[in-house]
Amino acid sequence: MITRDNLYTFLNNIDSLENKTLNLYAIIKDWDNSTIKKINIDVTTSNWLTEKYSTLAKSYLWDEVVFKSIDEYDDESSNVYYYFENCTPEMEFIKDIWWWIQENFSIDEIKNIEWIIVKIWNQNEFCNLYVPYYPIYLLDREKWALLFSDNSQFKSFESDKVLRFNNQITFLYYKKQEEDIVLSFDFERIEKNFWYEKEFTKRANTKIEAIENLWFISDVGQFKWYIESKKWLRNKLIKIQQTSEVFNKSVQEIKNFVDSKPFLASKINFDTDGKITITSEEKARIFLKLLDDDYLKSDLTEWEYETDKKSKIS
Predict the structure, then answer these.
(1) At what angle do helices 220-229 and 231-239 cross, to 10 degrees?
(2) N or C: which end of the chain has fewer CB within 10 A?
(3) Could you give the CA distance from residue 105 to residue 108 in angstroms, rounded to a whole number?
(4) Does residue 313 sit within a domain?
(5) Domain range for 229
(6) Could you read off the pLDDT of 33-89 as tens digits, one per residue?
């Protein structure tokens, strides 16, 4: 398993590596297809980009950072980057090895660039950094005067012949021999651009079907509406493991537990058949915490807690 230290060491030692190379690629959108093409750069630019982007990537990897599987995604966590064990079909190209690419980028394709890929590599390992592309022609020429210097004087330039990409790495792919990792630095952008939102919705629907089979709630359709309407509820649902002992409880056992806890009894309602009624976003949240066994009692203090940070020790 690739760790934070593996990746940081590679980036930190890049200047001392023998036979290191930097390649620049553009992902070109052409209707429903995307192609990857190599951008030709000179040695000076290559060296500058190597230093710039290896330093930038290291800035994401401070000491407290930990890597977790995307299956453990929690939008409230900090100091966590998520890796993908199984990429969606739309993300499979991330793991391609591009040294076979022969076709070069043409300046005529500049308006169709989706992403810039900075690839830093040597004989044993490489790291692809995926950087958002922001066309300079989007700058309003009525509001901005754009000039460049040829040393003797400043001149206007054609903005549709300038590449502009910023200091934000959305995700990276690092490979060393037989080990590799796809790591997200900006999961919301990946959700939007690589259909992972669709994948999360699919996972949530699978959990909803399992809940429906338990007959815990009276109106599954209403519950599903809240899950689909609020991403944070969907993410909470996805984290719940179907191996949880709560899934083995009967409806009556669930009701008995709720009735024994005054703080829950006032928040969770049951219909005449003994099923939970979910009539608000807040009630959906409470039900998910109940399903995830988030209501615990300390044997030491006998205090009762609401917690989603649990590590089983017995």
Answers:
(1) 110
(2) C
(3) 9
(4) no
(5) 198-306
(6) 778 888 999 999 998 999 999 999 999 998 888 898 877 777 667 788 888 877 666
